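The following block was generated as part of the benchmark described in Methods. Ligand: adenosine-5'-diphosphate.
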Amino acid sequence: MLNIVLFGPPGAGKGTQSQKLIARYNLVHLSTGDLLRSQIAQGTELGLHAKKLMDEGLLVPDEVVIGMIETQLAGNTDAAGFIFDGFPRTVPQAASLDELTQRYDTGVSCMIALEVAEEELVKRLLERGKTSGRPDDQDEAKIRKRVSVYNNETAQVASYYAGQGKFHGLNGIGAIDDIFSQICRIIDANQPVAPVSGGLAADEVKA
Ligand code: ADP
């Protein structure tokens, strides 16, 4: 299985790159933000509880998001692999992901971190807020809160994967297609099998 953790602060471009990666590698996209927003839309108790935290830019408790990921893994056992977008956001979430994927005799193939400076993130998210309808994208103070939660609680997840030799950092500012090519190069160099269509095999990249 090809299991990619796409990492970075809010507004780094994880969602955009995920859409391109799913098509290229035939992966299942697991975005905890999307899963939570779907719970909110359905008006579930979990959604109501999560909404308050999300609107404030705070993290939802680990056990909630871990439970959602566990359900998704169990429901997609025939998948070629997964893109984890917005998860893990804490070290306990990262440890749980290792444990959950081990149950299926697989693990995280690599972690790709999109690096973008705060001012650019704020600009992008305010722009997205004009059309996304997301309350957490419409207020500069809330956006800055999410970035500070990322810096204080989530950034250390990078060290977790660096410790496993799986961390790959990339500049997330530039043309979407250029960033996508760089991501593909990292993935192709880190997986034993060729992508579903197109792309360079690992030995071609090194040549
Ligand atoms: P963004 O990356 O733009 O902040 P997401 O859609 O990934 O947007 O997440 C929106 C919100 O959902 C987060 O601010 C947080 O409240 C909650 N959330 C999403 N994923 C997680 C997670 N893995 N752990 C805790 N909270 C999460």
